[in-house]
């Protein structure tokens, strides 16, 4: 071991042997790694621009990068936080758009959190008539409509049709054609507004045809369903009734199988629920995060090879347990009192949580009936909708929706590998669709000790708009704090229910496809049982006709939703974009991060339907085509020996390489559950999280300035500049932290000096460094590193597991090494080799014509 401590700090670091990639086959161009485009430099430069001034949404400037911390001023165009286009110059014809070879579309995050200095989204109440809408295309009134006929009519900016103005909304016009009440009409000034709506906008009450035929008799017999609407049941063709919005009903379903208890997952889940509902009695600073004051109510159940429902009515002396042992015919046995106010029934809830913590693994069933849980909840909540938060640790081996372990060893790398990422049968997709139609959202905490078939059960979250928090091989010392913070995140962040989304475009444009985690009726109408503030989808745009050069194209995204407190509203995002006749203008206004997000969501949607090499081949070809198009249309006179990349897309190659090295797409062996989890993340991930995931932040901890990461006069801290993702920029005597939004890894070099080891870990020997958790020490370095971890947690909204990796000693070093995406690893090339590959293909295209490159090499 002494050899480890005698490592020369100047010796180049060798990547771990298990992270090997592929090399470029051919003559390499002499490329200096320090001169190639760096995402860290680009992000830092953009942040410097926008740290001192706001972005005005109607300005001709390119919007700030999604990674920048900026303040947007809504002047009529929606902030890029909500809608970000792949280019802010729309080609005037479909042929021109096709020649650009860069996706044309929008990435939409309807409930993105605002910057603290930005104004709140205005709420507009237009009275009983509701918000004015176009009589032809049904678009909502917005800042870009034109008022005609002395204010009696308005002309839609999307379809150019005229609509009458109701008497309650009428206003005279001034000499410029502006309404006299313009100053009081925020919907005519802001690009993003919320409209209060009337009962005609209520969600449809689902028909009973949604339920499994086998569950109908049991549901009717045990009164799990209200059959007051027999007309809808007997005559499905009759227009369904509308469901009045109500405060959210939460169901917490806890897995009490042997694996859940043995790993400590059940105890952590119970502690997280207690802290979320009531805070911590031992720490007054830990406050409850449950949304009080909005009328929300809760219910609990536990399950293994049977289901336990709990009557927590405050009138009882203690919790009453009702057991359903026939999991093949599951139902909710309570007509009432299943849902309770968490404050009124606090004593019973705390007693229940204490009882669950006392369960022992040796007396618990090894079986798990997750499918029967959903089958019981669906009819019971179909009239009201709600939010199910499911904690599960075991493979479904009992009741409905039984899953089996996949034969990964024989399928990985074959043409049938894609079958690992699709549901085992139709039960789980059907349940997901029915929950989505009934307005029942499902968030899942999954903590398996062995494969759990996430490709099947994950459909519940994917189709309802929920999230999956994945903690494989659950370990309390590592995963408890992240689990608690994730549950708090669900409760504290914006959550909207019974969501219906419609994307409309002006004449000449149309939405051709949408990508994300939702239930879709068609390409332009999406439905979510729940939308979190992070929920994001991508919309591809195509031309349905020609647009006049120099004109303006319009996009409107209308999101109909019910707030957590039971208020029905429509959030409208509006965008006006210039139409341009030149390819150069399209590339000059391109937004790389939006294009990357759209491509990543499209690729994630194909996992399970196409083999991974084919998906990655298309991504590389998309990159080559975009650079080739720019080369022949905007820089044809440049020598073929030069690789020309448009300024707006100069980091496209490295981002594309990193995306292909992600766990959702990389070619080396990845457990199917892990790949499915990362696929779900790509589908709904907002752009800032995507960029941090595909190009993680790497920080050097051993040479921080004394005042770095220490609170300033205003109490704020600022993170140091991150590094390039390569061992090339590291030294063996250093300590580094990497963060990709899902895990933090601290790497300790073998030549790290003893004083750094002592100040950070509280030990004097490199070999005694603890694997977890990071000790709390009074030293400056310890405070700085903990401040950095807190800063990163604040930015992402939750804690993540922290791993310690000692050079050449710990398994966690492989995780760290695989995140250094610029190196040759993850069955992929290094950044410099990938640039050589792209350049080689573009030169081939210049010599032999478009489409002549050797795609087989990818």
From TrEMBL:
<comment type="similarity">
    <text>Belongs to the SEC23/SEC24 family. SEC24 subfamily.</text>
</comment>
<feature type="compositionally biased region" description="Polar residues">
    <location>
        <begin position="35"/>
        <end position="46"/>
    </location>
</feature>
<dbReference type="GO" id="GO:0008270">
    <property type="term" value="F:zinc ion binding"/>
</dbReference>
<dbReference type="InterPro" id="IPR006895">
    <property type="entry name" value="Znf_Sec23_Sec24"/>
</dbReference>
<dbReference type="InterPro" id="IPR012990">
    <property type="entry name" value="Beta-sandwich_Sec23_24"/>
</dbReference>
<protein>
    <recommendedName>
        <fullName>Sec24-like protein</fullName>
    </recommendedName>
</protein>
<dbReference type="Pfam" id="PF04815">
    <property type="entry name" value="Sec23_helical"/>
</dbReference>
<dbReference type="GO" id="GO:0000149">
    <property type="term" value="F:SNARE binding"/>
</dbReference>
<dbReference type="InterPro" id="IPR036180">
    <property type="entry name" value="Gelsolin-like_dom_sf"/>
</dbReference>
<dbReference type="InterPro" id="IPR050550">
    <property type="entry name" value="SEC23_SEC24_subfamily"/>
</dbReference>
<feature type="region of interest" description="Disordered">
    <location>
        <begin position="1"/>
        <end position="46"/>
    </location>
</feature>
<dbReference type="Pfam" id="PF08033">
    <property type="entry name" value="Sec23_BS"/>
</dbReference>
<dbReference type="InterPro" id="IPR036465">
    <property type="entry name" value="vWFA_dom_sf"/>
</dbReference>
<dbReference type="GO" id="GO:0070971">
    <property type="term" value="C:endoplasmic reticulum exit site"/>
</dbReference>
<feature type="domain" description="Sec23/Sec24 trunk">
    <location>
        <begin position="247"/>
        <end position="488"/>
    </location>
</feature>
<feature type="domain" description="Sec23/Sec24 helical">
    <location>
        <begin position="591"/>
        <end position="691"/>
    </location>
</feature>
<feature type="domain" description="Gelsolin-like">
    <location>
        <begin position="720"/>
        <end position="787"/>
    </location>
</feature>
<feature type="domain" description="Sec23/Sec24 beta-sandwich">
    <location>
        <begin position="497"/>
        <end position="579"/>
    </location>
</feature>
<feature type="compositionally biased region" description="Polar residues">
    <location>
        <begin position="7"/>
        <end position="17"/>
    </location>
</feature>
<dbReference type="InterPro" id="IPR036175">
    <property type="entry name" value="Sec23/24_helical_dom_sf"/>
</dbReference>
<keyword id="KW-0813">Transport</keyword>
<feature type="domain" description="Zinc finger Sec23/Sec24-type">
    <location>
        <begin position="131"/>
        <end position="169"/>
    </location>
</feature>
<dbReference type="GO" id="GO:0090110">
    <property type="term" value="P:COPII-coated vesicle cargo loading"/>
</dbReference>
<dbReference type="InterPro" id="IPR006896">
    <property type="entry name" value="Sec23/24_trunk_dom"/>
</dbReference>
<keyword id="KW-0653">Protein transport</keyword>
<dbReference type="InterPro" id="IPR006900">
    <property type="entry name" value="Sec23/24_helical_dom"/>
</dbReference>
<dbReference type="Pfam" id="PF00626">
    <property type="entry name" value="Gelsolin"/>
</dbReference>
<dbReference type="InterPro" id="IPR036174">
    <property type="entry name" value="Znf_Sec23_Sec24_sf"/>
</dbReference>
<dbReference type="InterPro" id="IPR007123">
    <property type="entry name" value="Gelsolin-like_dom"/>
</dbReference>
<dbReference type="GO" id="GO:0030127">
    <property type="term" value="C:COPII vesicle coat"/>
</dbReference>
<dbReference type="Pfam" id="PF04811">
    <property type="entry name" value="Sec23_trunk"/>
</dbReference>
<dbReference type="Pfam" id="PF04810">
    <property type="entry name" value="zf-Sec23_Sec24"/>
</dbReference>
<dbReference type="InterPro" id="IPR029006">
    <property type="entry name" value="ADF-H/Gelsolin-like_dom_sf"/>
</dbReference>
<dbReference type="GO" id="GO:0006886">
    <property type="term" value="P:intracellular protein transport"/>
</dbReference>
